[in-house]
Amino acid sequence: MGTWKLEVGKMALYMMFPVATFYLFNQPQYFEEYVTSMKRDFFPPENPEHRKMLEETIANINKREELAMLKALEEKRKKG
């Protein structure tokens, strides 16, 4: 068995080891590049050409739906 000094030393080691490893391995310079590359993989930069195609498609769909509604309204008006 050890003395109280040994027990205090062991307790300090048990408490300091997780804190020290957390501090050392969670420094931004260690994982900044990894986080940046993962973010670029999940959220790639927007392509203006794709954006334009998407907006044109949405406009075409809206125009088609509007024409269908107008046609249905015109048919309803003719019947009634």
Automatic annotation (TrEMBL):
Keyword vocabulary terms for this entry: Membrane, Mitochondrion, Transit peptide, Transmembrane, Transmembrane helix
Membrane topology reported for the UniProt record: Single-pass membrane protein
Localization, UniProt: Membrane; Mitochondrion membrane
Signal sequence, renumbered to the chain: none
Chief site of localization: membrane
The keyword Zinc is assigned to this record: no
InterPro entries attached to this UniProt entry: Pet100 (IPR018625)
Family: Belongs to the PET100 family.
Name of protein: LTV1 homolog (S. cerevisiae)
